[in-house]
Design brief:
The protein is of the alpha+beta class. The protein has 22 helices and 29 strands. The protein folds into 3 domains: 238 residues, Rossmann fold (3-Layer(aba) Sandwich); 125 residues, no CATH class; 270 residues, no CATH class. The strands form 6 sheets. The protein has a 13-stranded mixed sheet with strand order 3-2-1-4-5-8-6-7-9-10-11-13-12.
């Protein structure tokens, strides 16, 4: 901790021993916030501690965790290192008789033990057995750990707390905990907004509600897409018990909200509870139940709820959410579903019409698809917290559309958000007015001014990411210019594809949030470029192929890299392969009809999997789409074949057809996504050049058909802001080579 932060914490705890520091630390740095903010209680505020009396906390440097436990337990002990400075904690809890500072392991037993490993050198195998003996038979140990194998540490090379997930699990098992459950808190152990388990998947990683930078969200999202989020989560919370505990599958927290709206929604295997985090929330929780009852009185179905023990109890509904159903619907279906939602909104309250606008006497503004199940074409609403008197009906529809497209930006390829607004006559003027109203509402609700350490840090990180992103794009554009010159001087054909083609047509350059350049070449030109590469590319430029850099593999295509920069992807950590900023160059191969193409693709997949198994022997997650029973077979077969022979076999599989009327790109590992690329071979004879940043690049004259095939007929429409993010989880440094 920095000296000025330490001094500030000592000053505050000496002057204000009342422990309520949120208002006092409004302008302080992140370290002061970390050690004094009540938001640290999100680590455990959602856990059901019913009937527990005594708690023990270890690794709580300034007492932030102990202060929260003291609100839930009759007595809390804080175990400190005898060599440490106890001044802060003594001052902080000088008026609290139910809190004690101890320096050696006690003889008492505890209902709850909270253990936060602080020292990288600390061996938990020496601590955990002792804690197991201190735990009551029905007690719980919650152990927080920064995962040394997490995504963040794979990038920057720093350790977590010295242990990865699997090693820590073995230590816990050896310590005598037969019942172990693992939670994945986001964004971190310091402040939690959402908790995942192995029973669900992180579908909301890109939610704006999570206080993370765009780059951090992108890394997590890509790990989740590969099925690797559990193994690579940065922060872990272990629930360790001697007897079985509650089967919690997911948790949503809104602790940063105003106290009367601060809740924990805990999803169990068979039911859901919603509980207030501050006493001020009791009236709001009761109000939610009243709102649901009033909707039922209007003939609208709601999830049945029961208020008891200061919680709302609800059954776990086995039906899809309307928002998820919309994500897989056609444009006509989306409109139909939204029209039915609008009818439900009108049924929810007495309403009248003024100046052509419908006003609801009482508007339930949370009647949006994310708060609605659908079963047998019937809408079932839940979580109706906020209402507004004399509310425009289309304001609720504005919120419904805004937050639906925010969660699933891909809807824009089926029905643009703007077209959805237009269908419900929400014009641009209304959109601006409603957006301003909604932004003020959410900013006030989430107290962005009270917790600038959360929201300002998020903005600063995002701004830093944006500046670095611009410089990365500049390096990629330089690679494109070099590549274009080499092709022109040697009579080689190429064209832009995928996001680069879309950027050229829609933006006349790179898509602002894109992080790579995609080019394609006919196989004969592609092979010729490989042959002449050593003569035409001078340092720092390097044409990387599966053959000349055998420590990495991307599916069979090549990359042009700048060796004086860094673009290190996490799966290449520790490898000596070139990891400079790159542009992708794909070979265009002839293929048969769609059935023949799928058959050929399966053969390509086989050799791609063997190459992945050979070059990434510890990365089984890359083959997550394959049959688990065949996984070991791939590794056995790969070990029996030479690397160069596998590359030859892959190329042979890709070039099975010498000529056809259709081209595709086989040399990409499409995994479960499938290869849907089919391009008329004739189009490669008709290339035109169009503006791309400060140069001209070749694209198919028939580019409209290419783009519609990949992005749909609305490809010119801008996606929602939440979808505007890079697509590669890599650590970039445009100025230095790693």
């Amino acid at each position: 901790m920095k000296n000025n932060s330490t001094d500030r914490i000592k000053e505050l705890t000496a002057k204000y021993p009342a422990e309520k520091y949120d208002e006092l630390i409004r302008g302080d740095d992140a370290e002061v916030f970390y050690h004094l903010s009540s938001l640290r209680h999100t680590l455990f505020s959602w856990y059901p501690f019913a009937g527990y009396e005594r708690a023990l906390v270890l690794g709580d440097q300034c007492g932030a965790l102990a202060s929260g436990l003291a609100e839930r337990f009759a007595h809390t002990d804080i175990l400190l290192n005898s060599q440490g400075d106890t001044t802060v904690i003594k001052n902080r809890f000088s008026n609290r008789s139910e809190l004690s500072i101890i320096y050696t392991y006690p003889r008492e037993s505890y209902d709850c033990i909270l253990y936060m490993q602080r020292d990288v050198k600390e061996d938990p195998s020496n601590v955990l057995p002792e804690l197991q003996h201190l735990l009551k038979e029905d007690g719980v140990l919650l152990a927080g750990l920064i995962n040394s194998s997490g995504i963040r540490h794979l990038y920057d090379g720093t350790p977590g707390d010295g242990y990865d997930r699997d090693t820590y699990r073995k230590i816990l098992e050896n310590a005598g905990f037969p019942y172990i459950r693992l939670y994945y808190p986001l964004p971190s152990l310091r402040f939690i907004q959402e908790v995942f388990t192995d029973d669900d998947s992180p579908e909301m990683l890109l939610s704006e509600r999570l206080s993370m930078s765009a780059d951090e969200k992108e890394r997590l999202y890509r790990a989740a897409e590969e099925g690797l989020f559990p193994a690579m989560a940065d922060h872990l919370l272990w629930e360790c018990r001697k007897t079985p505990g509650p089967m919690i599958t997911h948790v949503y927290l809104t602790a940063e909200r105003q106290k009367e709206h601060s809740f924990a929604t805990v999803v169990y295997t068979d039911h859901v509870t919603k509980q207030f985090l501050c006493p001020e929330g009791i009236n709001s929780l009761r109000k939610q139940q009243e709102n649901l009852a009033q909707l039922q009185a209007c003939g609208i179905r709601t999830v049945q709820s029961e208020y008891r023990e200061n919680k709302l109890y609800m059954p776990r509904v086995q039906a899809p959410l309307l928002v998820d159903l919309l994500a897989d619907s056609t444009g006509e279906q989306i409109i139909s579903y939204l029209e039915q939602l609008y009818r439900e909104i009108l049924r929810s309250s007495v309403h009248n019409t003024r100046n052509g606008e419908i006003y609801l006497q009482k508007g339930y503004i949370d009647m949006i698809p994310a708060n609605c199940f659908i079963s047998d074409h019937t809408y079932i609403f839940f979580d109706q917290e906020f209402t507004r008197d004399n509310c425009p009906a289309d304001f609720i529809m504005y919120r419904a559309i805004r937050y639906t497209w925010q969660k699933y930006p891909r809807l824009n390829t089926v029905l643009t958000q703007e077209d959805a607004y237009k269908h419900f006559q929400i014009n641009e003027q209304k959109q601006r007015a409603y957006a301003q109203e909604e932004n003020v509402f959410t900013s006030t609700l989430r107290q962005t001014d009270l917790y600038p350490q959360i929201f300002q840090t998020q903005r600063e990180k995002t701004e830093a990411d944006t500046e670095k992103h611009r410089r990365v794009q500049a390096a990629e554009l330089d690679l494109l210019k070099v590549f274009d010159q080499v092709c022109a001087e040697n009579g080689l054909r190429y064209c832009a594809v995928f996001g680069t083609l879309l950027g050229a047509v829609r933006h006349h350059g790179m898509i602002p949030w894109d992080d790579d350049i995609d080019l394609a070449m006919p196989r004969e030109d592609y092979d010729k470029l490989i042959m002449i590469a050593p003569q035409v590319f001078e340092k720092p430029y390097f044409l990387q192929t599966p053959e000349n850099d055998p420590e990495c593999f991307y599916g069979g295509y090549m990359k042009l890299r700048n060796t004086e920069t860094t673009a290190a992807e996490w799966f290449n950590k520790g490898k000596t392969c070139c990891q400079g900023i790159w542009i992708d160059i794909f070979p265009l191969d002839h293929c048969g009809d769609e059935i023949s193409q799928k058959k050929q693709q399966r053969l390509v997949y086989f050799f791609q999997r063997l190459l992945y198994a050979k070059r990434y022997p510890l990365w089984a997650g890359r083959l997550i789409d394959s049959d688990p029973k065949k996984l070991s077979l791939y590794y056995i077969l790969a070990s029996c074949r030479k690397d160069r022979k596998l590359c030859q076999d892959l190329k042979k599989a890709c070039t099975k057809h010498r000529y056809s009327d259709t081209l595709t790109i086989f040399a990409v590992y499409y995994s479960w996504r499938g290869n849907h690329n089919r391009f008329p071979a004739e189009d490669l004879k008709h290339l035109i050049r169009i503006p791309f940043e400060d140069m001209m690049i070749p694209v198919p004259e028939n580019y409209d058909a290419w783009l519609k095939q990949r992005y749909g007929s609305t490809y010119m429409a801008m996606p929602a802001e939440t979808e505007r993010h890079p697509h590669h989880a890599a650590e970039y440094d445009p100025d230095h080579a790693r």
